Amino acid sequence: MENKTTTARKQITTALVDKSVNEIHSFDVYKVAELWKESKQMNHELKKLRIESDERIKIYSDKLQLLKSSLEKTFAEREVGLSALYKNLEQAEKENDREKIMAILMQISGIIIKNPLDSFVQMTKALEFGNQDILELDF
Question: Would you say 111 and 82 are in contact if contact means Cβ atoms under 8 Å apart?
Fold first, then answer.
């Protein structure tokens, strides 16, 4: 003999199954197929966009790395040149050679006055970053 709880559970289960079956029958199979096809197309487009964006990121990353190494090299060369001139200046001061001191100071001044970022701007344009504003560096 079934108790009332078991009977109620069976009735609820049967009602839910019947309702589900009715809703499945009323569901448009063609609509599901169309949605599936659309979903596959969207997934394909999404995959294509991911690949394109990864390629663009790689290109810009390579360009930025080139610019970074160029900047580092430019400032390193500048530092080496200035260091050598300062050593020569110290030697000229010890020797009290006014002509040599003036010549070295002129060379130092020439290096300091020259903007090392001019070539950086040209390189940025050459790498075709587009018409975007160039990042201003504050040293």
Answer: yes
This model's pTM is above 0.85: no
Greatest distance between any 2 Cα atoms in the chain = 121
Sequence-distant (≥ 6) Cβ neighbours of residue 63 within 8 angstroms: 127, 129
Q: Which of 135, 138, 134, 88 shows the shortest CA–CA distance to 111?
A: 88
Residues in the chain: 139
b or e along 3-25 (b: 16 or more beta carbons within 10 Å of the residue's beta carbon)? eeeeeeeeeeeeeeeeeeeeeee
pLDDT of residue 4: 65
Q: Which of 110, 46, 108 is nearest to 82 (CA)?
A: 108
Model confidence at 73: pLDDT above 70: yes
